[in-house]
Design goal:
- The protein has 439 residues and is α+β, with helices and mostly antiparallel strands.
- Helices cover 54% and strands 16% of the residues.
- It contains 10 helices and 12 strands.
- A 5-stranded mixed β-sheet has the order 1-5-4-3-2.
Length: 439
């Protein structure tokens, strides 16, 4: 049997699910106990007590029917009424005495009224105004007789107190359990927050605590975070060291080529410049998003400054729209490099580029569009990989790239807890590159 239909209605958070697991059995047990107690115990005891009282009432009515008038009937039934602790009187028929009445929370009252009507066909109405009084109106030969006696003779005293007590202590113990469970789940929440922050490029203090299993998971997370940090640091140092060490021989080559005739040195200088560009790309890729620490930044102001710098550099780029206001935790230097790479690619493969920004309470999207040839859907995943070079026809009038531009952008987006998404620009017809970051 499949319960997939129930999944959309289930809570999503761990605390809500644990609370449901804790509260649902408690509610079911209370309902089962209450129903079983009311139907089996209270109803059976009430039926037996009502049967006894009904026989006593039947005896009193028989004595009253043998009298010639109402006063004589009350005198004959007087000793019996006194022995049974009942009071009797004849009353004038009234609509008030023709319908049953009980309090809404009187669980056993309905059983009492039903049994009395079944056992005493002459009973006109059974009134249960309080937990200490019962009024029964019977039609006799001499008129309407009212019998008054203690309610506790018909059913157990205050049966609802047991249910109220059960509900009270159930709520009390459930509240205590919720508070305890919240303290147990808090370490898991702290670890999730630390993991989410690390995924967005921020390192927040975290100390494992809580149950043994949670502490074990916390220590495993800290070890994993330390290994990832060491790996990133080693990669950065290795690429930076290699790129830095290669600058010295390149400089010597440039000096040597400067002494050669210009015609002979031109092809070699071109190769040296390409190697220099390759080293610069290596350095940018090695730095990735490691430069600086996340800080509260106004994305609109940052994008406006980036576009202005690109325009001063002679690039045909324009900031079209900025939706939303506020700040976001970003590394300005890394975001500047990522958007700069996207703008560089856009104007390299197209004629112009447009930049836009959209902010919502949950996400931040930076979009760069161009009017170039774009990237086919089947090659977009490959385009974001390091050292990936697409069809040379895409380069047209420009030289081939190193293959790290989009890889750097994707790396910076992942370091901010986001992603790089490539698509087709509906507005310009070329490539549409989105940097989507969660806030």
């Amino acid at each position: 049997m499949s319960f997939r239909w129930l999944k959309p209605y289930m809570p999503r958070s761990l605390y809500a699910r644990a609370a449901l697991i804790l509260a649902l059995p408690m509610v079911v047990v209370l309902l089962v106990v209450a129903i079983a107690f009311l139907q089996r115990h209270l109803e059976d005891v009430t039926a037996q007590m009502t049967l006894t009282v009904s026989r006593e009432i039947d005896m009193i009515v028989d004595q009253a029917d043998m009298a010639d008038n109402q006063q004589e009937a009350l005198n004959k039934a007087g000793p019996t009424l006194e022995a049974l602790q009942m009071q009797a009187r004849f009353v004038t028929p009234d609509p008030e005495y023709s319908a049953d009445w009980r309090r809404w929370y009187d669980f056993t009252g309905a059983v009492v009224q039903r049994n009395i009507h079944f056992l005493l066909p002459d009973a006109q109405a059974v009134l249960l105004p309080s937990s200490r009084q019962t009024l029964v109106y019977l039609e006799t030969r001499l008129g309407l007789l009212e019998l008054s006696f203690d309610r506790r003779r018909l059913s157990p005293a205050a049966p609802h107190q047991l249910i109220v007590t059960m509900v009270f202590f159930a709520v009390l113990m459930t509240t205590i359990s919720f508070l305890y469970m919240r303290n147990q789940l808090r370490p898991i929440t702290k670890m999730a927050e630390a993991a989410q922050a690390f995924g967005r490029g921020r390192v927040v203090p975290y100390a494992p605590r809580g149950a043994v299993e949670v502490r074990t998971a916390g220590h495993a997370f800290l070890d994993m975070r330390a290994r990832i940090e060491r790996q990133i640091e080693q990669r950065t140092l290795m690429l930076s060291g290699v790129s830095h060490d290669l600058r010295t021989p390149l400089t010597r080559l440039k000096l040597g080529l400067a002494m050669m005739p210009e015609e002979e040195a031109a092809p070699l200088l071109k190769d040296v410049d390409e190697m220099q560009s390759l080293l610069d790309a290596f350095l940018d890729f090695s730095r990735g998003a490691s430069e600086g620490t996340p800080e509260a930044v106004d994305p609109a102001a940052l994008l406006s400054q980036i576009v202005e710098d690109a325009q001063r550099a002679g690039r045909a780029v324009e900031l079209t729209e900025c939706e939303g206001q506020g700040t976001a935790m970003l590394r300005p230097t890394a975001i500047r490099r990522a958007v700069g790479n996207l703008i560089g690619n856009a104007v390299r493969y197209g004629n112009r580029a447009e930049v836009s920004l959209m902010m919502t309470p949950k996400s931040l999207r930076i979009r760069v569009e161009d009017d170039g040839p774009g990237i086919p859907p089947e090659q977009r995943t490959e385009a974001a990989k390091p050292f990936s070079r697409l069809d040379p026809a895409r380069n047209q009038n420009q030289g081939t790239g190193v293959g790290l531009g989009l890889a750097i952008v994707a790396d910076i987006a992942r370091a901010h807890g986001g992603a790089l998404r490539l698509g087709e620009s509906e507005k310009l017809g070329g490539l549409c590159a989105d940097i989507v970051i969660g806030r």
